[in-house]
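Q&A FORM
Asked by: J.P.
Topic: structure of Acetolactate synthase small subunit

PROVIDED:
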Amino acid sequence: MSSPTQRHVLSALVQNVPGVLAHISGMLASRGFNIDSLAVGATEDDALSRMTFVVVGDDRVLEQVRKQLEKIVTVVRVIDVSSRDYVERDLLLVKVQAAAGPKRAEIRELVDIFRGKIVDVGPDELMIEISGRENKVQAFVERIRPYGITELVRTGRVAMVRSDSEVALSESTKATA
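REPLIED BY: S.T.
REPLY: Here is the structure written out as tokens.
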């Protein structure tokens, strides 16, 4: 019996060298895996970058993607973040039509409700920044859409496994001993 289709978050620690992103995304595409979200960025080590993928599929698809990633020489480690307790964030920048007046005030109130920020103000539009879980960001997009979105960009999901409180406690105990 196969497991249900779901969204999996994978984190790959990779060598920070030219062509890694193209190599990995090309390999996944050539094997028919669709990347729902992809974010790449620096880590605490200048020699390494972290790639966070969201792929859709059952456990068999997840296992195949993980195995394919681990075969790539520039991949140092792959973690199935979604199988653990983790924190995730998505960043949205959106320009919305908002001439001065009551409409602009409504948008400002909506931004406050979602704990966002207005990061740029033009004569007829606002640029808004929202960050949080993917479902929060998507909910904001749906609420702001009727006002007239003129441009929208999202980072894709980034995620980090939470510290294991028992491991963290034992490490802090060792440090004080």
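FOLLOW-UP: The longest helix spans residues 134-148.
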